[in-house]
Write a structure and sequence with these properties.
- The complex is a heterodimer of chains A (325) and B (143).
- Chain A is built from 16 helices and five strands.
- Chain A has 325 residues and is α/β, with parallel strands linked by helices.
- With 143 residues, chain B is an alpha+beta fold.
- In chain B, the strands form two sheets. A four-stranded antiparallel β-sheet of chain B has the order 2-1-3-4, covered by helices on one side.
- Chain B is globular, with a radius of gyration of 17 Å.
- Classes of the chains: A alpha/beta (325), B alpha+beta (143).
- Chain A binds chain B through residues 1, 3-9, 116-117, 119, 141, 144-150, 184, 187-188, and chain B through 11, 14-15, 17-18, 20-22, 24, 55, 57-64, 66-67.
């Protein structure tokens, strides 16, 4: 009877399955071959195509991918290759794509062979911290167990620790997290996310956490160009089209919106498009005896955006007379 | 005497990596995995103590391994087994069950014969370890 062998023991096992014998010390490896062999490029290209901007994030991911390649090559020479620490902290304003990147990161690390399953477990303080003594530890462990083999994404992680209340159970949760982050490094990647200043406070009061998080990645705010590019992607995702004149209006809209309070980057773009969809639907339906074409159903017109309060609140709008809403 | 109970029990004890691979197989089949322990090795002792609740929603075996290790820590000289339950309609039964820990020394069983009327003999098994109270059966007590 054949003994079962563990296929999950090592990351990147797929490529190592057909591993040739160890190379001599003076052998030379072709990096391009190794690159082609692993699917790093496909993963990175997809990342570039799907995410606009976010240069620091992409750089970091490139580095991680490169390390994976180097580790594989080192393994061919029989050099030790330990898994890098991959716990991360994502800081940035609302709507800069922290959650989206975390999701991608899970797929990516799975694709690169660092994670066995590549699922994302997204939690907040509620899911980790209990309500009474003795409740926190099992709750946190339960979540950690679910996240094994994937990414544990802790949104607004700073709520875990309340400085002014030393009896808060959050500290216990942080302690367990730290322990698992240290001991179970091969099994899961923890990503902490939150607003920059509050995360800084959080790390200051939890130095142990700060040192165990290897990658502190700051998400910059998007520029208008990037936001317009994002809106194109979002529209395409819902199979809508933004004609050139609409894109111009949208750019104007975003410039105005950015000056207003509570601007939430990509999230605001998403909301703008959602509202434009509503207005477009209303426009198409409310015309008496109207007929529609596929093209009409797909395209968001300038008017759909111009009806927004962002324009009407402002006295110097130039296109407001086109508004049919 | 080495107790052979559940799957793989005629093989050498599985290593942790092998256990993990088996657990992953269970999880990939959507079976819920439960950990049970006992120090009564009698073959008819089918209802073992449960270690926590069965695990239904773990996507990866290392979560289960975490619990297996916790159970081993708490009961270092007990029998610990993992059983996977297949809840699919038409099956609804334990799909796989195997030992993941056994005591270092297993004294085995005595075959007892009881005389009945007309020279009939009734046989029964008595575990030597079972003579001692629960928790002290395999040396180093822990409960």
């Amino acid at each position: 009877m054949r003994r079962p062998v563990d296929r999950n023991a090592e990351p990147g096992e797929a490529a190592e399955e057909s591993q040739p014998d160890m190379l001599a010390d003076d052998a030379v490896l072709d990096v391009d071959d190794i690159r082609a062999e692993s699917e790093v490029d496909a993963v990175l290209d997809r990342l570039d195509a799907e995410l606009v901007g976010l240069a620091p994030v992409k750089t970091r991911i490139r580095e991680i991918a490169a390390l994976l390649l180097v580790d594989r090559m080192r393994a061919r020479f029989g050099l030790s290759s330990s898994r890098p620490a991959l716990h991360m902290s994502f800081t940035g304003s609302p709507g800069t794509g922290k959650t989206t990147v975390a999701l991608r990161m899970a797929e990516l690390l799975h694709g690169l062979g660092y994670l066995r399953r590549g699922h994302l477990v997204s939690v907040t303080r509620d899911d980790l911290v209990g309500q009474y003594i003795g409740h926190t530890a099992p709750k946190t462990k339960e979540v950690l167990k679910r996240a094994m083999g994937g990414v544990l994404f802790i949104d607004e992680a700073y709520y875990l620790y309340k400085e002014d209340n030393e009896r808060d159970y959050g500290a216990e949760s942080v302690e367990i997290l730290l322990q698992v982050m240290e001991n179970q490094r091969d099994d899961l990647v923890v990503i902490l996310a939150g607003y920059k200043d509050r995360m800084d406070d959080f790390f200051r009061s939890n130095p142990g956490m700060s040192s165990r998080v290897a990658h502190h990645i700051d998400f910059p705010d998007y520029s208008v160009d990037e936001l317009v590019a994002i809106s194109g992607l979002m529209a395409a995702e819902h199979e809508y089209v933004l004609p050139a004149d609409t894109a111009a209006v949208l750019r104007d809209y975003l410039e105005r919106r950015m000056r207003q309070p509570r601007f939430a980057n990509a999230r605001s773009v998403r909301n703008a498009i959602e509202r434009a969809r509503l207005r477009q639907a209303n426009r198409l339906v409310s015309e008496p005896g109207a007929t529609v074409t596929k093209q009409q159903l797909q395209s968001l017109e300038p008017a759909d955006f111009l009806a927004s309060r962002v324009f009407t609140d402002d006295a110097e709008t130039q296109d407001v007379d086109d508004d049919d809403a | 005497m080495r107790i052979t109970q559940g799957a793989f029990s005629y093989l050498p004890d599985l290593t942790d990596d092998e256990i993990k691979a088996q657990l992953q197989y269970c999880i990939d089949n959507d079976w819920s995995v439960a950990i049970e322990f006992t120090d009564d090795p009698h073959p008819r002792n089918v209802y073992w103590e449960m270690w926590g609740l069965p695990m239904f929603d773990l996507p990866d075996a290392s979560g289960v391994m975490l619990e297996v290790d916790a159970c081993r820590d708490a009961y270092p000289v007990h029998y610990v087994r993992v059983s996977a339950f297949d809840a699919r309609l038409t099956r609804q039964t334990t799909a796989l069950s195997f030992l993941v820990q056994r005591p270092p020394e297993e004294p085995g069983f005595q075959l007892e014969r009881q005389e009945g009327p007309d020279r009939t003999i009734r046989y029964t098994l008595r575990s030597y370890a079972g003579d001692r109270p629960v928790g002290e059966r395999y040396g180093r007590g822990d409960s």
